[in-house]
């Protein structure tokens, strides 16, 4: 597998390119609008064709480069089927499999941060049949979880997030590496570490949110949400394809 994270340290944001060098197919996850040529150039340098561009959710803190990158490369632009957007996309279903040669991606619908949030469970068949890492989007971070208040109905979304994390993520193998969409410096959660990666086992042991019961979790994540990101409404209009 070829795997490359792109870390934007000034705003605590991450994007990823990964795929199979043998067949030359790859995916780009959570690309930024201001850096799409970088992802395309990296894929070309590794002789890979971008076949899927995936946003783990409709972002509220930065403009997505997903639709533009997909159009430029002929790739599919992918979101969970429940995404509220006014632009064409390939709908993803819970438990759907995306095959990129020897790299296989399993979609996990994990609503909470937003209703359409997904995580991506990735395997490298040349290494082992078992999954290798998990891209958690804004559902779970290093030392924290995603904020539930951006779409409104914060308590309802916090309860849904608690269920998603418990039922979908914490049941996965503890050896899994975790690559979230944000780390310290982002407004998408509270208490995130400046270290951009972790494992399921480490988070089970040290992430304070994961030891809380449902009521504690809801009260904590709702009560601790920071100020909403600047220009959030304009960013959401852009990412939903509704900007004038």
How would you describe the overall organization of this protein?
- With 244 residues, the protein is of the alpha/beta class.
- It has one domain: Ribonuclease Z/Hydroxyacylglutathione hydrolase-like (Metallo-beta-lactamase, Chain A), CATH 3.60.15.10.
- The chain is built from 6 helices and 14 strands.
- A 6-stranded mixed β-sheet has the order 1-2-3-4-5-6. A 6-stranded mixed β-sheet has the order 7-8-9-10-13-14.
- Helix 3 packs across helix 5.
- The chain is globular, with a radius of gyration of 17 Å.
- The N and C termini lie far apart (40 Å).
- The model has no long low-confidence stretch (mean pLDDT 96).
For the structure shown, list the relevant keywords.
244 residues, alpha/beta, Metallo-beta-lactamase, Chain A, six-stranded mixed β-sheet, 6 helices, globular
Write a brief caption for the model:
This protein is α/β, with parallel strands linked by helices.
CATH topology: Metallo-beta-lactamase, Chain A
CATH class, named Alpha Beta
Annotated CATH homologous superfamily: Ribonuclease Z/Hydroxyacylglutathione hydrolase-like
Beta-strand portion reads 25-35%
Query: How helical, in percent, are the residues?
Result: 10-25%
CATH structural architecture: 4-Layer Sandwich
Catalogue the unreliable spans: none
Counting structural domains, the number is 1
Distance between the termini: 40 Å
User: What's the overall average pLDDT, rounded?
Assistant: 96
List the secondary-structure elements in sequence, H or E.
EEEHEHEEEEEEEEHEEHHH
Number of strands: 14
> What about the largest sheet?
6 strands, mixed
Structural class: alpha/beta
Strand order of the largest sheet: 1-2-3-4-5-6
Gyration radius from CA atoms, angstroms: 17 Å
What's the helix count? 6
The general outline is globular
